[in-house]
Input
Amino acid sequence: MAIVQLFYDHDRALVRQLSLSHFSSSICFILVLITKIIL
Output
């Protein structure tokens, strides 16, 4: 259980660090998806 909590805290820290880059990459993915649907 402590290991799961450790991984959870580590994931939260990673999410806090990478939230901006993940957000921008997901926006790019959505834009590519929209252009493929339109074209």
In short: Residues 2-38 form the longest helix (37 residues). The helical segments are 2-38. The chain is about 95% helix and 0% strand. The two ends are 49 Å apart (CA to CA).
